[in-house]
Every structure is written in structure tokens, then in C-alpha cells.
Amino acid sequence: MHRTRSFLAELTNPVVERPQTIADRIVARIAAHTDHVFGVGGANIEDIYDAVHRSAAPITGIVAKHEFGAATMADGYARSTNRLGVVAATSGGGALNLLAGLGESFDSRIPVLALVGQPPLALEGRGAFQDTSGGAGLLDAERIFGSVAGYCAKITSVDDVDAQVRSAIDAALSGTVAVLLLPKDIQSACAPDAVLSSDPADGSDSARPLNDPLDTEVRPGPLVIIAGPEVARADARAELELLAVALGAAVLVTPDAKDVFANAHPLFAGVVGVMGHPHVSEVVAAAAQCLVVGTPLPMLARAGVEAALADCPRILHLGSESPFVPVHVRLRGPLGRALLDLLPVLAADDTDLHFESTSLPVHQVPAASGPGVRYRDAVETIATRLAPGTDVVADAGNTGAAVVHYLPVPADGRFLIALGMGGMGYAFGAGIGSALGRRHRTVVIAGDGAYFMHGHEVHTAVEHHVPVTFIVFNNNAHAMCVTREQLYFTGDYTFNRFGAARIGDAVAAMFPHIPAYACGTLAEFETALDQTGDASGPVFIEIACDPDEIPPFAPFLKEFTA
What we know:
The protein has 562 residues and is an alpha/beta fold. The chain is built from 25 helices and 18 strands. The chain starts with a helix and ends with a helix.
């Protein structure tokens, strides 16, 4: 019967060239800035996916398992490539599922464009399914998404498409989330005949000077640089290194910017903040001047160095956001050029800290006696097997703290962690987006709690043969919450320990054609890593660990020395 219907369809519906639709117009414009669209399908976004399929430009549509996963894929793609991340979702529940992921991108200033389907305009306010037009008794999508976006617009006329898409892309590329609400009938409408104008070329940083004058008085003595994630977003790693080397400055990085300065460089002095290295306050205290670049120093990054910063003779801040600490000089301007402009200003004779990065001190954590492998042993084992260029994506919780503290970023690799909203499960989607964007292996490191939230995006990696190694630390608990129950409350109850789950065995059963391991010892973990070192597609490794182990997280360790 199916073949008969297909044959009749061919007779009665000869192939004709379809006119260009508004969805085609939108896809043609975003294809200049990305080669992937991540999302979850549905009736009110299917025209966009149809346009992706028919696009003359090389652009691939990826369907995730959940809209949060799709949003984090777009986020990870954007962070690791410095291109536009694009996520597409249908109306109603699909749209609302985007909010947590977009909230992370918004807070972390990641350029993401969300294309969100809406019911046809003609049915708004007339009982349309999933109507969020904001009428009486209805949700208002523009107000909802406006709270997690720097730009949000609803396209209600085909004549406005070019201008609104251009404005949305420009807004996103400035470092924010942009949302376009796309009614179904607008997407499928025929596009006007007007030729799609090309996007203007990106402006060159070299033509834009600093907009604040600097005092030119030289402060003899050591210089320390604290670098944050805006350095990565501005692709200013080379300029940062040039400045540091020319001035002999020690370089500290925030937890979400571990990849902006080579971790093996002699001037690398470690990570600041609650997951950082214990000596960083001494490095800052020894400085005659401090350059804070690309970070406003939020709490997770400034904890432990606030007193040293308060005593620093001169602090200069370079970045787009106002700092959360007092500074003496505030600079604004494109980071790459601004860092080069600072060279003659900051030049001094005696700025060498003689710091050796090979001996970075680490926090001494209380001994753990429970089951499984210790965080430090496991993370250092991972580190010895990461090839240059490998990207690492860490999730929230005790596992993330251990990775930030113990794991050096491989040369030419990227390091991603969601510290904007700190949402669990971020790493699974972000790792997939990063791997597809950078086109080489990414290692995702997460806990079992994060896996149970959004870890089934592993299926997306399997479907598209994405080169991601998923490493899940399984302690059958929300371990950071267990630690907090013990340290800050009575500890004689728990809501956060779970029954045993055999995650590695489950994944092996679901996907028997990919390498999947369940490791209970360090030796088994080492074997799993060695056996999958040359894999071309996804790999899944579960490693057992102890829910009572204290991670290298400064607020927890402080409780033991108080």
C-alpha cells in the first residue's frame, strides 16, 4: 500500500521548484555565521528544519533529546568556536524548555540566537494550541524570553524579516542571547523578492583605541594579570600572552577561563576563586600592580583574593562589564588591541615573579575512606591521556570543582564550564556542540546527578557519531549537596544519597556498538582510557567514586580549619 501511495503521489504531484520561504531567508542569513542548528522539532518550527535541509549553504541540523540540551549545544559550539550558536525550538513546552539553557548563555555573555516557533498569527487569541501571545489569560513569550535575552523580537510581517534577523544576529554577536519568535504562517510565507544583503564585515579591533586615558606613572615591581572568559570571547589569547611575556607578568585565570593562557607556560600561576589554587592570594599580594582583564570578578572568581586586591597599590580593569571590586583605573575597548596598547604603559624593569608552573600547589583535602576512586587520582589520570588540542567540558558539583582544580588544559585545547547559572547537565550538550564546532575530540566530565538530568544527550552523540568521551563520576548521590548536609547542618539525615545505579552497564546495553565501560578501580579506568584513545566516535566511561569525599572547594575546606 505504501509503495502504491508513493507511486500515485509521483504521478499526481510532479516535482516543482518551491519558491523561497521566510524560513529559507532566515537560514540563508544565519548560515553566514554558523554551520549547525541545534534544536528539537515540532509543528511550529518544522519550516526552519525544512529550510536547513534544502539550504544551498553548508549547514547541518541536529535534533537533541531535550531543548535544554539543544541550547547547551549551541552554547558549547559558540564558546569553543567564537561563532554564533543557533538553537531552534517549537512553541509551548518546547519553547519554555529553552529557558534554563538560554539563562546560562545570557549570564555568561555567550552569542546564541534562539529561533522559537509560535502558533500562526491568525489564531492568536482564538484558542490556538500553545498560544503565548500575551493576551488575557495567556503567557507572553516576548516578556518571558526578554528576561533571558539581550534582544527579543516577534516577527509579524514578512517585510520586517531582513532587518529583524540582522538586528538579532548583531545583538547576539555583541555577546548576548537573541531570540526571534517566529509564527508558523510567517515562516512558511513566500519571501519578498528583495535580495538578501550580505552582512557587513566584522570591524577590526586594530582601528579602535582605548577610550579612557591612562596615567603613565611607572609602578616598579611585579605585575600580575587575572584573566577571564572575555579574553576567549574576544579571541585575544595571543595578545594576552604577548603582554605577559613582554612584562614578565604572572598570569592567573578565573575558573571559567582556564584555556585563555597556556597552563604549561612558565608564567602561568594558577586558578583564582573557590576552586582555585591555595597560593594565588600570595601572588596577588606580591604584586605592585594588577591587571584584571576580561572578567568583572564575580564571587566564584574573587573569593580568596579580595583582601590582597584591596591592598594592591594599583589595579587596572579592562573589560566590557563593570568590576565587582574597587579598581584604580577602568579601561574599555576591544581586548585584543587594548592589551597591545597597554604594553608601553605597563612596562617596568623589575616584573619577573620567577614563578614555576610545574609546582602549582593544590589544596590538601581530608582523606576519604569510602568506595571508588579519588577525584585527584582520576583527574590526573585523565590529564596524562589528553592529546594537544583536546577540549574539556566540566559539569557542576564536586566533580567540576575537582576538574577545575586538578586538570591542566591541553595545549591548544578549550575548557568550558557553566558558571553563569551553574546548571547541572550542561556539559553533555555543550560537549557535543563543541566537538561538532571544533571537529575533534572533546572530553565531558560530569557526575551521576548531572547525567540523570541531561545525560541522555549521549544518544545525540551516538546518532551523529560525534567524537566525545563522556566520563561520569558515579557516587550515587548529589554529592555537593551531601557535603553541605554534613558541613552546614546536622548530617544525621540526607535527601541526596541514592540507590546504586549501574550507569556504564546501562549505556553499554543501550548502545552496544560504542565503547562503554563501568570502572570500579583506577586500574580499570586507566585501561578504559587507553583502549579508547583512538576511537572515532562517542565513548562512555563510568567511574565509581565516594559521595563523602571532600572536593578541593575552598568554602568546604575552610570548615575544617575554622
